[in-house]
Specification:
Layout: H1 7-25, H2 29-36, H3 40-48, H4 55-64, H5 70-83, H6 98-106, E1 109-114, H7 125-135, H8 141-154, E2 166-172, H9 173-177, H10 183-197, E3 202-207, E4 221-225, E5 234-237, E6 244-246, H11 249-265, H12 269-282
Parallel strand pairs: 1-2, 2-3
Antiparallel strand pairs: 1-4, 4-5, 5-6
Helix pairs in contact: 1-3, 1-5, 2-3, 4-5, 7-8, 10-12
């Protein structure tokens, strides 16, 4: 697959365009579903980019919306074709969070708050193995290895020589104190975290216990932003059996404001490196 074709992003853009055409026609998703003899949930999944869109789906929808410009139809059909190609992550088999990986791969910047663990993009291999093994105690070693490999591949965006992902991570002190994989693994992880935080496009801030209650008290979330203005920002909240993607402007704005409060309450970058270094020393004694 050409590197400039991201199937996840193609699906999002195509879904947004199909929603726009439906709204111009003044139809509800339920009305479209009735015309095509499909479920309303299918129309919703097509529009939010969570489901692969076939060229037949595009043809049928364009027929319902009475799109007469063949150039528009051809463009949408091509997007549908591109959206069914496979991203690099498909080579690893079934990945539950493949939609997120597709978004992250195309994102320009990522703001993440982690209350329990070091963010995946900043993990060492040893730490990642311990985290994944602990989170999935019944998973076979092959599944653990696959997930670790995917995580390592995702980190290429952070370390890319050109146009790397701009990463801002606010990490709760609990993530640094939780002994994952033993003292040596933690010492190596914290040293790696300090090294990564010195990259010009990476900012790490620690939220100490002393700060008490804060806007992120309810748990982890990430905000992804994209280089193309046509791609709306996305708030990602990871779940055990399913994940949540928020794209409405007021939802993104609310989480963005929460993130600004977290950044204001956390230690600054220099204080954070000193704080992490002090904790790392405790793991080397």
């Amino acid at each position: 697959m050409p590197t400039n074709v991201n199937p996840t992003v193609r699906r999002r853009r195509l879904g947004q365009e199909l929603r726009r055409l439906r709204e111009i026609k003044g139809m509800t998703a339920e009305e479209v579903a009735e015309r095509l003899l499909v479920s309303q949930s299918k129309i919703s999944r097509l529009e939010n980019g969570r489901r692969s869109i076939s060229q037949r789906d595009v043809r049928d929808l364009c027929g319902v919306y009475e799109v007469e410009d063949h150039r528009v139809v051809d463009s949408l059909m091509q997007m549908a074709k591109d959206s069914r190609q496979q991203g690099w992550w498909h080579a690893f088999g079934d990945i539950p969070y493949s939609v997120y990986i597709g978004l992250e791969t195309d994102a320009e910047s990522l703001r993440v708050y982690e209350p329990q663990i070091v963010p995946g993009l900043l993990q060492t291999r040893g730490y990642a193995e311990a985290v994944i093994s602990g989170a999935l105690p019944e998973a076979p070693p092959s599944d653990i290895e696959k997930r670790v490999s995917v995580r390592a591949r995702r980190q290429d965006r952070v370390n890319a020589p050109e146009a790397p992902l701009r990463l801002w991570a606010v990490i709760d002190e609990a993530a640094l104190r939780r002994r994952v994989g033993g003292k040596q693994v933690m010492a190596e992880q914290l040293e790696h975290l300090i090294e990564q935080s010195e990259l010009p496009h990476v900012t790490v801030q620690v939220l100490p216990f002393d700060m008490g209650a804060h806007p992120g008290i309810n748990g982890q979330y990430a905000i992804l932003e994209f280089p193309d203005a046509a791609d709306s920002s996305v708030v990602y909240i990871e779940g055990v059996t399913s994940d949540l993607y928020l794209e409405k402007a007021h939802d993104v704005q609310r989480y963005s404001v929460m993130y600004e409060h977290l950044r204001a309450q956390a230690l600054n970058a220099d204080q954070t490196r000193e704080f992490i270094s002090d904790i790392a020393k405790e793991y080397t004694r």
